[in-house]
Amino acid sequence: MYVLSEDFTKRVRSIQPTGVRKMFDMAGGDVISFGLGEPDFQPPPIAIEEFHKAMLDGRNKYTTTAGLPELRKVIAESWSDYDSNLDENNVCMTMSGTNALFNCFMALVEEGNNVLIPEPYFPLYGPDVTLTGGEARYYPCLFENEFIPLVEDLEKLVDENTKAILYNFPSNPTGAMLSIEQRDELLNFAIKHNLWIISDEVYDRIIYDAEHVSFIGTDYDRVLLINSFSKTFAMTGWRIGYILSPNLDAMTQVIKLQYYLAACSNDGMQYAVLAAFQKASKYPEQMALEFKDRRDLICQRLNEMPGVSCHVPKGAFYVFPKVSIEGMNSEELAIELLKGGVLCSPGSAFGKSGEGHLRFAYTISKEDISKGMDKVEAVLKKLI
Questions:
Q1: Where are the beta strands (DSSP E) in 280-379?
Q2: From 352's CA, which of 39, 46, 54, 87 has a CA 20 to 30 Å away?
Q3: pLDDT at residue 2, rounded to an integer
Q4: What is the pLDDT averaged over residues 49-61?
Q5: CB neighbour burial string for 204-242, b if at least 16 within 10 angstroms, e if fewer
Q6: pLDDT given for residue 28 in this prediction
Q7: In this predicted structure, what is the pLDDT of residue 48?
């Protein structure tokens, strides 16, 4: 039977597949992939062992909606340097950071509300706001400002219907991080307009050359922090994350909502993550050391190429260079690179402010980075 698209809701018809996935689906097998942001590591062995043991021990059942109390306590303790008052009541386990993100938008956003979203952006942000009935308003994070937003640009977008602002540091796709002074400027903007802050800090332990600066631990409690173990413990396929907030009223609402979104998180997996915290706590830092070497290599190579200018990212595992090829937009350039044997993401996949850029995820070996950069350089020399 033929089904008309009108049979489906406006909200689902208004969203489209991401440009990142579009390029990934176009790629063949014989390419060097800088496409998806997925660590090329396995979870800590102790976590895999504990997951197996937990399943054998019968940890295959429903848990409480908020999750395993012991794990939530350990997570709260991991943020104690920022806020010593946190405990397990400030944490709700979720089925991934993606689940946590949608939960927060569902809890806060109503028809007629708008949310300020960074651009370039993680592609799920805007569609999530749309699906909750709100309007996404994009604020620029530009190359010339090292991808840090300016309060003057935020002021142009905020109004009486603005409910929240989303911050993402370290950033996907740019790798940008905040100084304390920059954080405080953005914090004061939210306080001035009484906005909720949704702070996506999933890369908080993949950082270089500086300490992570969080929106947790300030005097402002209208903060919902999103985090995940996909990046920090290389558990992308495990789909486990959490929401953390100093605001217990907010936690009551997101925990209630989590039941209707997913009922609860995975039973045995929570014991595995607990083991990772307790027995492999330095694993993220060990990965970050390898990522730093890769970052230095790819930035050096890119900045040596004609028409390319690249900031050295301070966190995450992406570079977002500006690439200028006359008469060619970022998607067209990404397709040319794909023909040359390299998969990357066009900057336009991350919003209008991303045009003129490419995103490379350095989640492959240094050997493959070098081979990939040779191919990129060869394509660019032909085009310029």
A1: 308-309, 318-319, 322-323, 342-343, 345-346, 358-361
A2: 39
A3: 52
A4: 97
A5: bbbbbeeebbbbbbbebebbbbbbbbbbbbbbbebbbbb
A6: 63
A7: 98
Helix and strand totals (H; E) in the chain: 13, 14
Q: Please give the class, per CATH, of domain 5-42+283-383.
A: alpha beta
**First CA to last CA distance, the chain:** 51
Residue 183 clears pLDDT 80, i.e. is over it: yes
Which structure tokens are listed for 162? 């603005």
Does this model's pTM top 0.85? My answer is yes
Q: Where are the domains of the chain?
A: 5-42+283-383, 45-279
Alpha-carbon distance of 115 to 197, in angstroms, equals 10
* AA identity, residue 372: G
Neighbours of 256 (CB within 10 A): 13
Pairing between strand 135-140 and 114-119? parallel
Report the candidate in 243, 247, 270, 241 with the shortest Cα–Cα distance to residue 255.
243
Kindly state the DSSP code that residue 357 receives in the 8-state scheme: B
Q: In what order do the strands lie in the sheet with 91-94?
A: 91-94, 241-244, 223-228, 196-200, 162-168, 114-119, 135-140
User: Rounded to an integer, what distance in angstroms lies between the CA atom of residue 347 and that of residue 335?
Assistant: 12
Q: What is the pLDDT of residues 325-340, one digit of tens each?
A: 999 999 999 999 999 9
DSSP E strands, the chain: 32-33, 91-94, 114-119, 135-140, 162-168, 196-200, 223-228, 241-244, 308-309, 318-319, 322-323, 342-343, 345-346, 358-361
Q: What's the fold here for domain 45-279?
A: Aspartate Aminotransferase; domain 2 (3.40.640)
The length of the chain is: 384
